[in-house]
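Re: Re: token formats

Sure, here are both.
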Amino acid sequence: MKNPLAGPLVFTVRTDNDTLKAALADQLPVVLGPYETFKLVLPPELESPAIRSELEPYSFWSRMQPAVPDTSVRYVLPFPRGKTHRVIQAYGGKFSHRASPFAYYAIDFDLAVGDTICAARDGVVVGLVEENRNWVHGPDPKYREYANYLRLYHADEIYTDYVHLKYKGALVEMGDTVRAGQAIGISGYTGFTSVPHLHFNVMRPTDQGTLEGIPVRFEQIDGKDLQEGDRVGHD
């Protein structure tokens, strides 16, 4: 088994064969780190074409494991030092941050098309979409799937999203290691939005295999203290 991604995956086997389940109980599930491989060993009595047919790639599935964030981490604001930007939507914003636990703790900054987006902490690029054209946007949820974005994976198994990049607006590639404050993308006007901006979200995996938003603490201020209209910057 091989993890083809730059983030962790949990592998297990789906089978109705009780003998196979028992034989693999001490090997699975297994958490594979980025690009890691794992050799699944079958007992001799199970080495048969019939058993192997139950272990075809389609029988494998993966999901993120629950994670506990490192609460000592302070995030860098997701734009260059020396810049100041206004908050146009904060926690629980009525336009789009109340729809689900995924986006509730997101913060929108008023970056213009062409502004630089920076990594909020050290991480690895595990998600990248930049093929949507700049004019594909609107204030309707139907445009959500047309947002260009970057996703970073961090040491405590937490993720950050940087959404609404311009067409071909990524400055990094899948699998790249990035540092806090590094330029990673160019802000655009794509997806579910009524104005150009950067949607920034910190997320953790849940035991249901989904992602949910969590509060963020920046170097300068806690995210919970930011309100619509506030201006925030860093030296």
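Second one below.
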Amino acid sequence: MIMGASPALEGQTVVLIGGTRGIGLATARLAGVEGARLIITARDAERLREVGSELGAATAAFDATDLERLGRFIDELPDVVDHVLITGPGPYYAPLADLDLIEARRDYEAHLLAPVQLARHAVGRLRPGGTLLFMSGTGGRRSSSGALLTAHTAAIPALVRNLALEVAPIRVNAIAAGFVDTPLSAALLGDQLDERREQLRRTLPIERVVTAEDVAALAIHLMVNTAITGATVDIDGGQQLLD
């Protein structure tokens, strides 16, 4: 927030689906600083209570990969809201020979059908000009990432462009992140995390690792800037310039 300026989200309501860790939590905190009323959801009810208490947020505990429950949550919001960010689970990495179809189906539902379900239920529950904001990634743009992840990564921008037309004047955008230093990255990399951080510090043009707070700042910008819709915006510290 610029010194002396009004908070950018003052009087607005922001819903964070998956808002207790990583990018979701960082966005919730920044939205609160910018004056937003917060509604946060997560599967872990205990963690959700802690974050809700910290941020003074309304909360709802459920699994967002349960698409029927997700739609019902949006339908049952007590008032019209302004912005919804859904972070979702991490990507499912698997080469074709090791692909588990059950896990693949869950991944498809979490990363493609969940945004569709949100958009279906958003009309009438989000104010005109408000934002649906989805998370994607840049790593799946490499063919070596595996067929499933590559297909999902390619599908998100097309999905966002079409949804932006179908639910207009609600705005629909996505953030495509490279490596972000979050608990999810730590879980995926394990004991290789520090090595990956150091490699990125040495090679990225920005000479540091992208943080959840960096992504949160972009998310708030996409909520505030009412001229942006149908866009997938990259944030990777210049990582793709080196590939």
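The helical segments are 22-33, 45-55, 67-75, 101-122, 147-166, 183-189, 193-203, 212-224. The longest strand covers residues 126-137.
- S.
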